[in-house]
Structures are given as structure tokens and as C-alpha cells.
User: Fold Organic solute transporter alpha-like protein from Leptidea sinapis.
Amino acid sequence: MDLLASESSSSSRILTARHVSAEIRHPEVNNAVNTTSALLCHSYSVLPDFGSYYTALNTYALVTWICGFFVLAALCILYGVTLRSALKHWPKTKVNLAVVLAVYPIVAAAGLLTLIVPRARILSEAIAQETVMVAMYHLYFMIIAECGGPDQLISRSSGSLMETRVLPCCCWPCCLLPRPQVQKKCLTRLRYLILQMPIVQALIYIIVLVLWAEDVELYRNNFILIQPFIAVSILSGIWGMMICIRAAEAIGTRPRARFLALQLVLLIVKLQYGIAKALPELFQFSCIVALNPSVFVHMIQNMIMMAEMLLLSLWAWRLYSVQPEKSTEKVPQVVIAVLEDSLHSIDLKKDIEKSYKNERI
Assistant:
């Protein structure tokens, strides 16, 4: 490179590039504040501590937290109102009902925790997802109880076949799946299939939290390897829930809307968290504040999630505060079948009494 030489009074020589003037003094940029701001803004692998996070947001942090507390308080009040109304229609499944309805305030509380402490993001995600998995298992018991219990479900199904070709196993080669009769052992297998979701997800997130605590980069590099196990566990559990819902609908109940209200929470927790993780890596965001762009994206995602939990909780209030719906097309068939069986048993009893009298004569 062509360099200019300039001599000073002490005969020392300073070599500078042609496009840089030796007489201009540039401001120092290696001070602590600028270095910290650049690190927080541009490093995608560093999450700020609470002090740096609060300093960067300042007044916006207080406004966000206050709004989050108001939303959480509204969800807790709505939970109490919904539970009180729903207990009139589901008196035999009080614990199951309380767990299912508690999903919305718990998931919102996990989002608020991340809004306050960004480094608690993985813990909040684990809490939110595990809550949904446990609620799925309790919803299964509510559906069975709505059918009158396992024995009533089996007797009212009258030897019909279970529909196994449902989402997410409705396409080839899943169309080759056998369709067993509605029996007690099949219902037990469905229960175990749904039960594995909270157990497997809890074990996986324990591993994830250990990797996160050991090294953030270790977690980021190995999380993709854990995703197939998470997907298989969730999809198999959802498949079991869909089979159970089809069996319940076949005898006249309608639990699909309540399952959808819970399934949407799972989609929000998994899909939105995944999108929030992928966006900072796929796109180069400008630094709005002195924060890691991934932290800013997750902050917006958690605010949206809390608003969605409030809307879903309102829908759950509409669903659970009324008497469970039943299909008018299926119930009369069951009543007629029971009536025919009763008449048949009465006729059979009369025939036995008549034959007994004839034998005595």
C-alpha cells in the first residue's frame, strides 16, 4: 500500500494510509460504555442481565411490566369466574377442570417472567409447554367422564371401531393403521399415549436446562438434535387425543371445541417461540435500543402471547360456562338401542316364565 511519510520535530516517522490524515484526531471508541452497547446489540449469543436490560428500556420497561401485571390479574379473575361457572356442569371432574383452565394464566405468567428477566426465557418456555402437556392429560379424563366413564363409552359404542386415521396420522402410510374395537384395553393404551407427553417433555426440558446452564453455545448447537424427540412425543399424544375425541363424538358428545381451545395454546407456545428464535438468525435487525435483537424479538413475542392467552381465556369462559353440547343425531339412536334391549329382555323374561309354568302343569 502506498504510504505517506511525515516527519516530526523529533525526527520520528509516522506512517499513515493515503486516505487518513495524520493531523486529525479520532475519538476513542474503546471505552466501556460503547463496547458494552455494541456487545449487547450485535452479539446474538449474549442475553443481558437485569440491570443492563432495565437500563436499555428505562421507562418502557415499567410500562410493559405494568401492562403485563394487569393482563395477568385479568386472567386470574377470569379463571376464578370460569371455574365457578364450569363446576356446575362438571361436578365430577373438579381437579381436571381446574388444571385445564389454569393453562391460560400460567402460560401468561411464564411470558411475564421472560418480560422481566430475559435470562429466564428457557425456563419460562419449559413451564409453559409442560403446563399444556399436563392439561392435555386432564382433558382426556374430562372427555371420558363426559361420556359417562370408560364402561359407558364402551357399552354405548356397541362394538364400533376406533377411528385411527385422524390427524396427524391421516395420510399414507398411516392409512394402513388397524382400527380396533372400542374396548377397555384400547382406552388404556390411549391414556398411556397421552400420558407420555408430560413425562417425555419434562425429561427433555431438564436436559435442555442443563445444557443451557452449562453453556449457551452448547445448548444452541445441540437443540436441533432434540427437536425430533419433542415432535414425535407431541404428535403421538395429539393423535391419541384425536382418536379419543372421535370415539366420544360417535356417541353424541362434542368435546372438539374445548380441545381446540387447548390445542391453540400449544401452537402458540411452540410455533411462536420457534419463530422468535429463528427471526434474529434469519434476518439482520437494526438496533432500536442497546439490546440484543433476539431479546427485543422475544419481548414482543411474549407481549403478543399474553394478549392471546387473554382472548383464549375469554373463549374458554364461553365454552365451559354452558352445559356440554350433545349431538341430536347420535343421542336418539342410543336411546332407541337401549329401549329395544329393554323390550327384548322383558319379552325374554315372559317366555321363560311361561315355559316354567307349562313344565309345572
In short: The chain has twelve helices and two strands. Residues 1-40, 331-343 have pLDDT under 50 and may be disordered. The first helix runs from residue 32 to 42.
